[in-house]
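S1.2 Input.
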Amino acid sequence: MMFVSLDLETTGFDSKKDKIIEFGAVKFDLSGNKETLKFFVNPGIPLPQIITHITNITDKDLKSAPKFEEKMDEIKNFVGDLPIIGHNIKFDTGFLRENGMEINNPEYDTLEMASILVPYLPSYSLEILSHVLKLTHEEKHRALDDSIAAMELFLKLTETFQNLPEKLIEKIKNLVEKSAWPLQ
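S1.3 Output.
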């Protein structure tokens, strides 16, 4: 089965007024096969200094980049109808939807999964989880590297779940069958 882990960098947190500046995704299967897609997006506005500080992305990087609308078909073709993985994925898919993309794919949030399968951490940021679980996360707050870290986290959490005692897995299955929880 194939999945797509994706991440965006944006000019801020509000999908109604802020803009996408970078897209990164990795298409993968459970056998280790993967394909990546990444590109900058010209937001049409100057970057806030805090965003440049966090991401190391500059206005110069984005100046000759295409507008988001020019890349939508490429994203749709890459993602297709595959399940989408991401850390706080509703943030990213919310931005994509707000920018005109129709997304009906199943979504799996590694933040939610980690809060259940790795209890008692002081923070569930991708950076902290990557450190605690010894995942690859070279350039934090960059779309492709964050999507790769989320992919690795998803695989690690899936493995953790599969290694739970069988009786516990059965209890979990029985509980979630009665719910509308997206992770069921």
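S1.4 Remarks. Residues 7 and 143 are 5 Å apart (CA to CA).
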